[in-house]
């Protein structure tokens, strides 16, 4: 009980001291003075996007130890901005708020973990001082100067600094497919290699010193302590220079505990050592539990410990290092497989084989090469030597890519949290001998759960896409997509990063896509849609083209009726020519009107009987704009629920207060993606279940 109370106190203390910042007196409506130091520069120079660690915002000052970060856009400038520059300027700030969907990258959680509190833009600024780079930044710059000209520069730079900013998307995908992504996160493998190399270097130094000091009695020196301390010091320096990541801190904690146990001669079993390391990591920062790398790291160490314990307990002759390595890889693959499927919706099939080569190669060749390369590069020019080694490593990586091809990664689809917990509970019951006979308990409980879960007839997913629209309607594994959302800076498409991952991880077949009209916030991802399905889903309603009105027709989506009812004729504007779609199962229905305005709404009332427009759920026309949602149209549709798809910081101040009042006065339940995030509606025989991402994926520290 005391430990539980201390844990709660530790969490509250960390949240209050490290993750909570005072914003009460900040005027977010106006431009306010700021002072801060550039923490990170995004993109190429001259940049227009930076991350600043703020020491002052308006009249609010932040202490020197814990300061919030702000992602800031700046006007085009010819001034080269670099890290550690201290800036004073005027900025328009707002609290960081990202899109919240039921799957995919959680930008708000990322911002919380990294203390990103604000985002905004700087209208004017000047440099107070370009402070001398600290040791960490000088080290990173030196590493890039040393390895930056090589083909695998991103690989060496990441391993030596822990900074993944040099890794491009294609390179990440290659490492993921090969099952080598874990090599890019500084962990026990890397810390152990550094410790062992420096341990033996220390031993060599002592041997040379004692050889030169002939006649001295070497036995009076406790040299093993020197070897270990030398290794621990260099390993800590590496942890610091690699960014103090969660996995690195965990590994170093275990290294410290292991050496301490060794020297005090205390007999401590492996599970207790692992538990102490976990406790130390959580004491330093309990919010590491939000980092999936923490779980991967500890499960992998558990797998290694299991092999070590079995090896010591075995009565058979000693296994070779290769058999041990294969066994470790098998254990890691089995134990991490379910977590990989839960987090990444798949796992690497090539990982078992590539790691058999990669881990020894990294341990005995690549890592020593990099460490000694950094050391020697500070003394002499070794570019030719580096190029020679790099060409060999590049050839090995390319050979692995050629052998595995596109078959290295298995897209398994999604499993839910209950299934994940069931799998690991079975593992625990099986591996712990005293309770192995009770392994049938989790099987029975999971079976009861599966039998009692009622599946919906169909589902509606209104994604949180900011200002724009993207709605997925699914029935029996097949789906219709209404609009694609926006595309920003001609690079970031909502369809590619939000909608497509959701479709793939849930094993959904996209049979139909309808593009309501030609505004960018509705069709921003057409290029990505073509890459995804070669426009096959556009065949039914758009004849495979993207710049046409939808065809007026009725089709079946399993048990659902999908009918396009507008535009019947051209009203002369993109908004009023939006494709209006009604989806119905005979009991519940959903009306999607795009961005139609009052003129199109009244035209619909003239061409269709009132009962034909009536729907249970309505997607608010034109995101809740004042020009839409006329009272006549709302009464004709007579919805129980209306959904606004819009951004939280809307420059158009949507939904308009008059529209909100109109729906409220008619007793209609109003849902808003800007407030609730991704809205999922599960349609059963006689009821609707509404799921809101900001509730189901919310944490107490976000409220």
UniProtKB/TrEMBL annotation:
One of its GO terms (cellular component) is plasma membrane. Keywords: Cell membrane, Membrane, Transmembrane, Transmembrane helix. The chain crosses the membrane at residues 180-209, 221-241, 294-309, 321-344, 356-380, 417-435. Residues 465-641 form the Metallo-beta-lactamase domain. Coiled coil: none annotated. Its main location: membrane. It comes from the Bacteria. Pfam families: Competence, Lactamase_B. It is found in: Cell membrane. It is a multi-pass membrane protein. GO terms for biological process: establishment of competence for transformation. Gene3D superfamilies: Ribonuclease Z/Hydroxyacylglutathione hydrolase-like (3.60.15.10). Residues 159-434 form the ComEC/Rec2-related protein domain. CDD domains: ComA-like_MBL-fold. This is DNA internalization-related competence protein ComEC/Rec2.
